[in-house]
Design a protein that fits this description.
Radius of gyration: 20 Å
Largest sheet: none
CATH superfamily: MetI-like
Strand content: under 5%
Shape: flat
CATH topology: MetI-like fold
Structural class: mainly alpha
Number of domains: 1
Number of helices: 8
Length: about 220
């Protein structure tokens, strides 16, 4: 208990950084993932090929390597990005690749007859997507999207390798200064578990509300 009391300010600061990394990266990944999904189902060959290549690269390589390329590799090309923006950039690109597949699966789950019916009424493509297809696709994809958000919150611990002082980095620092590594990392693990439990509960509430809306 004394370790928790002594390290509480640092833990709260690290938790705040963790939440910022996960929240901002997920929000940006959500937007980019939606655009990539649209490109993936596009009739334009160039867009489709580019989207397939993007998803293949970012899903097929470890997140840690992507993170280190952004932070340590880009400076060799004359592009220097501070640690936190570097982590957000890497997490955003990584999560967008997975989210795009979640969106694509949801869009493909919408029956083709609804596309045809809306098209026969003269609705333009963007209106069909925004009013008919995307709301249904989002409902289908919500469980997978929620799981991706929870996974991303845990992935933020990798930011510690590029000197971002988030929750895992704080636990490491507390452990090294007190030589009580077990307690320090157990405390950090409990905090991650509490955060992700809250996110899981929120996801279940959201899923129930969306199910009632379409009941």
């Amino acid at each position: 208990m004394d370790l928790i009391t002594a390290s509480l300010p640092s833990l709260l600061s690290g938790l705040a950084i963790t939440v910022v990394l996960g929240g901002v990266s997920f929000a940006l990944g959500f937007l980019i993932g939606g655009l990539v999904a649209l490109a993936r189902i596009s009739r334009f060959g160039v867009l489709k090929v580019a989207a397939i290549a993007y998803v293949s690269v970012f899903r097929g390589t470890p997140l840690l390597i992507q993170l280190m390329l952004v932070y340590f590799g880009l400076p060799q090309l004359g592009v220097r990005i501070p640690p936190i923006p570097s982590a957000i950039l890497a997490f955003t690109l990584y999560s967008a690749a997975y989210l795009s597949e979640n969106f694509r699966g949801g869009i493909l789950a919408v029956h083709g007859g609804q596309w045809e019916a809306a098209g026969s009424l003269g609705m333009p493509y963007h209106r069909i997507m925004s009013r008919i297809v995307f709301p249904q696709a989002l409902r289908v994809a919500t469980p997978a999207i929620g799981s991706r958000f929870i996974a991303l919150m845990k992935d933020t611990s990798l930011a510690s390798v590029i000197t971002v002082v988030e929750l895992t980095r704080v636990a490491e620092s507390v452990g090294s200064s007190s030589f009580r590594y077990v307690e320090a990392f157990v405390i950090a693990g409990v905090v991650y578990w509490l955060v992700n439990s809250a996110l899981s509960a929120g996801q279940e509430i959201l899923e129930r509300r969306m199910a009632r809306a379409y009941a």
